[in-house]
Specification:
CATH topology of the domain at 29-141: Immunoglobulin-like
Mean pLDDT: 72
Largest sheet: 5 strands, antiparallel
Number of strands: 9
CATH architecture of the domain at 29-141: Sandwich
Strand order of the largest sheet: 4-3-7-8-9
Helix content: 10-25%
Keywords: Membrane, Signal, Transmembrane, Transmembrane helix
Strand content: 15-25%
Distance between the termini: 167 Å
Length: about 240
């Protein structure tokens, strides 16, 4: 029992002394993504390549990413390493490369993680990027997008919290716009006078005619002096 306890205590100390367990032993891994590269590479020409090193291919590593860069290996065993310089964005680096003629295997140097096989570079010629690991595109699509701003790794599209309004399908039918502006004036008559003026004139004439012919007028009371005195006519005198 005492020997077992000693072994359990000594094992972590031994691992620390050897530099820790390999990153792949605990399932930790990373992916190196290249920013858009020149369409063609020439021998002896300097190029600056941007690249991203993301843990699990989806997010920045929280620990120290050192060393970091790009490694190129030719079929004859010649190896070139180009150190990555950190940029403003998390997990974003750049490296200046000058590559001789040949066919080169390109790898990403990823600090504590195993190197990642980026692709194959032919000089003179182009860089052919390896396809993503199986299921990696789905992992990227589900990744939280809070790590970056407008500058982000290739394939990481900005997330939206509010869906955009659907755009109606194109149609050849004219677009009708309804407004609250007042209706246009009535068309003018043949004589050049607006029709509503004739209507008003006709209405005024009708009112005047009605006032003359059919409108009952109040009887004027004759003055008192014009009325005959019927007092005596209405009085009966009976003599005694």
């Amino acid at each position: 029992m005492k020997r077992l306890l000693t072994l359990l205590i000594a094992t972590p100390v031994l691992l620390l002394a050897l530099g820790g367990a390999p990153a792949g032993a605990s399932g930790a891994w990373a992916v190196t993504y290249l920013d858009p590269v020149p369409p063609r590479f020439e021998s002896g020409t300097s190029y600056t390549l941007g690249f991203w090193v993301l843990q699990h291919g989806t997010h920045p590593f929280e620990g120290s990413m050192n060393p970091v860069g790009l490694r190129l290996t030719r079929a004859d065993g010649k190896t070139l390493e180009f150190k990555g310089i950190g940029l403003a964005e998390a997990a974003h680096y750049s490296a200046s490369v000058v590559v001789p003629k040949g066919v080169w295997r390109v790898e990403g140097i990823q600090g504590p993680f195993q190197p990642y096989a980026v692709g194959t570079l032919t000089v003179p010629g182009a860089l052919r990027i390896n396809p993503l690991p199986p299921g990696q595109a789905d992992m990227i699509a589900q990744t939280e997008q809070r790590y970056w701003g407008d500058v982000r790794p290739p394939g990481f599209e900005p997330g939206t919290t509010t869906p955009a309004a659907p755009i109606p399908a194109a149609s050849s039918a004219p677009v009708v716009t309804v407004t609250s502006s007042p209706p246009p004036p009535a068309p003018a008559s043949d004589g050049g006078v607006p029709a509503y003026t004739l209507l008003l004139a006709a209405a005024g004439g009708a009112v005047a005619t009605w006032a003359v012919l059919g409108l009952p007028t109040a009887r004027r009371r004759r003055p008192a002096e014009d009325e005959p005195d019927r007092t005596q006519e209405d009085t009966i005198v009976i003599s005694g």
